[in-house]
Fold each of these.
Amino acid sequence: MDLQLTEEHKLIRDMARDFAQKEIAPIAAEIDEEGRFPSETVKKMGELGFMGIEIPEEYGGTGMDTLSYVLAMIEISKACASHGVIMSVNNSLVCHGLYRFGNERQKQAFLVPLASGEKLGAYSLTEPQAGSDPANMRCTAEYDPETDEYVINGLKAWVTSGPNADYIILFAVTDRSKGRHGISAFVVDTTLPGFSPGKVEPKLGIRASHTSELIFENYRLPAWHRLGEEGQGFKIALSILDVGRIGIASQAIGIAEAAFEAARDYAKEREQFGQPIANFQAIQWMLADMKTRIEAARLLTYQAALAKEAAKETGARYTLPAAMAKLFASETAMWVTTKAVQIFGGNGYSKEYPVER
C-alpha cells in the first residue's frame, strides 16, 4: 500500500488550502459570531469544483476520488468548520445519494446543478422524536394517483443547510404498517408550496452553517421525485450515511489541525519565567500527543476513503472503516481543541483568539 499522495491529490489539497486561507479564514470568526450563512464563499467553492468532487464531469462534478474529497474537506474545515459541514453535506449526503440512487432524469434535473454548485442541497432524516430511531418517523408521504403526486406532511429537525437549500433529500413514511421498510426517499424542491423552514437552532458552535426544522403542510411533490422504489428509503439512508461519516471525519481532522497549529504557534510566542512556554516539557508533551492523535485520525480516514474507492468496484460495504474514522477523528477534535484551550490559558476562553471558536 502506497501512502504517498499523487500529484493530482496534492493539487486539489493545495488549491483548497489556498482558497480556504485567502477567502474563508479572514471571515470565519465574523460569520460565526453573526451566525451568517456564507453565500458568496459557498458559491465560489462551487465554481472551484468543491461541491461535487467525486461526481463525474458529465453530471457537473470534477470526477475525482474519495481521497481528493477528504484532502479538500480537511483544508476547508481547517479554515472554518461551518464551510466544511456545508461542503460535506452537499458532497456526501446529497450528491452521492443522487448519483448512486437517482435515475437519469433525476441526475440531470438535480445532480448537475448541485454538483456544479449552482444549487445547494440538504439531507433530512431526523425528526424531534426520531433521531436514531427512524422506525418512529411521523412525517408521511401519501400517494395521490389522480395527480401522480405525493402529499407530504410532517416536521423534520436538525437539518443542516435546511433554510438555505434548493433541494433536499427527504425521508418519509409511505406505509406505516411496514415499519422501517415503509420509509421512502424523495428529492424535495423547496420552491414548491407547502414547504417552509422552521426554527433555526441557536447552536453552541458552527453557527454560520444553519441547522433548522423543516415544515411540510400538504406539500405536493411530483412522483418522479421519489428516489428509488417505495420502501427503500431506510436502506438508502444508511448507505448515504456511510459516506457522510467520512466527510465528518475529514472535518474533524481539519478542526483539530487548526487548533494544534494555533496552540503550537502561541506556545512559541507566549513567554513565562523568561522563556517561551514551548520550552516547558509539560507543553511539549501536550503538543506531541495532539499531533500523534491527529495523524492517527488521518490514517483511519484515509483507510475509509480507500475502502469507499474499492467499493466502487466490489460493491462491498465500508460501514466499519467509515464509522471508526468518524469516531476517532471526532473524539480527537474534541481532545485536541480542549488541550489547545489549556495551552492558551485564560486567552483560550477569549473570542480574540481562534481556539475559542
Note: Residues 122-231 form a domain with the Butyryl-CoA Dehydrogenase, subunit A; domain 2 fold (CATH 2.40.110.10).
Amino acid sequence: MIYPKIPLAQSIIEICLAKGITNIIISPGSRNAPLTIGFAQNPDFKCYSIADERCAAFFALGIAQQTKQPTAIVCTSGSALLNYYPAFAEAFYSQIPLIVISADRPQNKIDIGDGQTIRQQNVYENHSVFNANLTEEASVENDLKINKAIETAILKRGPVHINAPFEEPLYETVEALTVSSKITVLEPFLETKTIENSEEFVSIWNSSKRKLIMVGVNEANTIDEEIIEKLAEDPSVVVLTETTSNLHNPNFIGSIDTLITPFEDVDFEDFHPEILVTFGGMIVSKRIKGFLRKYKPKHHWHVDTLRAYDTFSALTKHFVMQPNDFFKDLYSKTINIESDYFSKIKTIYDLRKIKRKE
C-alpha cells in the first residue's frame, strides 16, 4: 500500500481509521496532498472529491446526519477552510458530528506574506466543540489531540477542527508506515434513565391542567409508540410538532402557525400553558416563539442529553437525558387529570384547517 511520506499525515489517517471515521470528503488542493494520497490509497476509506468547499462541507454534513457517525472533510491551507464555516456552524447548532482536517503551512510561514496563508488555528473557535492544533512532527501529544478531537465530536455531537501543518515536499510516498500511532479507547457514556428528584416534577405535572409539548428537529423512531399514545390520549396535553420532528399522531398539531396565526388575546390566554416541555432541535415558527415569550409558562422543561437553550426566557429545568426515557419515567409515576385543554385547542385547530381549504 502507498502512504504519504510525512509522518503527521500518516498518524491522522491511521487514527481516523482506528476510530471508524471512514467517510472522507476531499476538497482538492496542494497543501493537503499528503492527506489526499493517504486516504485515497486506502481501500478502507470511502472518499469523495468535491471541488467547491462550501458544497463539500454540506455534503459531509448530510452524510454525518444520516449515518449518525462523524464524517471528515479535508482541505488545503488558506481561505479554503473558511468556506466550510456555514456547514460547520450548522453542525454546531444541529448537533451533528463533523471533523474538519485542514492542512496548514508551518508556523514560521504564517504572517510573512506567503500566499494561501491565514491564521488557521482556532479559526472556528466560536462554534467548535474541540480544536486540535497540531505541531509539524508526529508525536504522542499530536496523537492524543487527534484522538480527543474525534472522541469529542462523537460524545458532544458537534463539529471539531484538526489543523495540521505540513512542510514541502508534499507528494512523496512510502510503501510502509513509519509511525506507530497511539489510539485511545473511548469510555462508554452511561445515560440517565430516570428523573432525578422526580417527586417534585411529578407533583407539578399532576397539578397542571395545561401542558404544552413542543418538538423541534428530531430523529425518526426515537420515541416509543407507547409514549406517543400516552401523550395523544392525555386530555391535559397539547403536542405541537415541527415538520422535521418525525413524530406523528392524529391528535398532534403539525402546523403550528395554522393554529395560532388568527389568535387574539383571549385565545392566547386560553392556550397559555402552565408547563412547557421541549425536546428536539430548534423551533422554526416565529409566531410560537413570540407567543411563548409574551405568555411565559410557569415551568419550562427542556429534555436533551447535551444542552438546553432558553429560547423563551422561561427555562426552569434542563433534564439531561433522552426524551423517550424522560416520558417513560414520568408517565410511570403520574396520573391523567381532568382537563379540557386538548379538546379546546384541537377543536380550534380543526376549524382552522377547514377554513384554509375553503
Note: The two ends are 68 Å apart (CA to CA).
